[in-house]
Amino acid sequence: MTALADPGVAFMMDDLPPRAGSFSAIGCEHTIIALRPDALEDAVAVAQAYLAGLDLAASRFRDDSELSRLNARARTTDVTAVLSPQLARSLSAALRVARLTKGLVDPTVGAALQANGYDVDLDEVRARVPRAPGTAVPATGWDRLLFDPSSRLLTMPAGTVLDLGASAKAQAADHLAHLLSASLPGGFLVNLGGDIAVGGDVPPGGWQIGVEDSTGRTLQVVTSHGQALTTSSTRHRTWQTSQGTAHHIVDPRTGQVSDPVWAQVTCCAATALEANAATTAAIVLGEAAPLWLASHALPALLIPADDTQPPVRIGGWPAEGLS
Amino acid sequence: MSNKVPARTAIRRWTTLAIATASLVGAGVTGTLATTAATSTTTAASSQSTTTTANDSSSSSTTGSTSSNDSFSQVNSVSGSTQSAQTSTSGS
């Protein structure tokens, strides 16, 4: 279902306000904003088609996806395969995130997620009786994957369970922002489940982006003049286990759900992929996150899980309007 | 009226500025957390710039572990706004 609406912004372009279109796909809500209203319907159609292809290639939750078939083969033997262009693009992005974070975000974390109970679509996980988490399974290691992007040839060891959930959506936001701005008039903001990338024309005054908490309260509105923006949260994508609430960000070094030191972390970066790499790594790092983000000069806003503690701003993140 | 700034042009345009301001922006950390030792006052400039440098070496990687010299691109922070939000990020 697609909903088209005026986003209610305070600027005009070519005498017409920008338009926003929203739709659901890959388990999330997405929004496309087009500065040229006449470009919106095509932009939404392109995004929907792209995400449908991404789901078929990289979903861990459908048996017929290319990724699921690779993971199934790897249960008993080493696997060598030529990937589709779509899956190759997603895996290249995931490996880049692993390099950027030195393995704090690792695409071989799939078995760890399964052991923690996130083995099927989240709606199904939430609907069933809470289970005890299984034995923690550290990631098998992104550096044990052999992948050549030019030939798209992947070799992965037996026992590997790939999960590209930490990066595929952000990479898709970047790809769509670039694709739309290269093929349609005007400028675009692509918001895939909170992973935001922009491309093409920038509206006068910039793109106005709210940072919301898990209750939907706007903590701050910030202006992007081209920066991508993402948020990782320990309060979204949660489920109950017999030992309490679990969330979806696992420390690949231990295989355990990351300590929820932060309710959420928001970063801006040159791309949504880099921003998402940073926010996910920050959740994994917990108390060490501020220094790590600062060492990479990554502007960030960290909201402590302990709501008696104030927000932490890194790398020039603005204080203006922060509630 | 269009403000279109092609990404590659923006990258070139702001590379010099990024280098010049890097020492000023540095790693400002504000706010406190009981368990976080580092707190200082941010010195970020209120620049309107965007992307500065790009370091994507993914296209050259041949294994998961090679090309380990990859690094985050440098970017100036977003700025605070008093306008209404057009969209929002709330985490996934």
Description:
- The complex is a heterodimer of chains A (323) and B (92).
- Chain A has 323 residues and is an alpha+beta fold.
- Chain A has eight helices and 16 strands.
- Chain A has helices at 40-58, 66-73, 85-100, 110-115, 122-127, 168-183, 272-285, 289-295, and strands spanning 2-5, 19-25, 28-34, 79-82, 146-148, 153-156, 187-192, 195-200, 207-212, 218-224, 228-233, 238-241, 244-247, 262-269, 300-304, 312-314.
- In chain A, β12 and β13 form a beta hairpin.
- Mean pLDDT of chain A is 93; it is low at 8-13.
- With 92 residues, chain B is an alpha+beta fold.
- In chain B, 21% of the residues lie in helices and 8% in strands.
- Chain B has one helix at 7-25; strands at 29-30, 79-80, 87-89.
- The model of chain B is unreliable at 8-54 and 56-61 (pLDDT under 50).
- At the A-B interface, β3, α3, β5, β7 and β8 of A face α1, β1, β2 and β3 of B.
- β9 of chain A pairs parallel with β3 (87-89) of chain B, so a sheet runs across the interface.
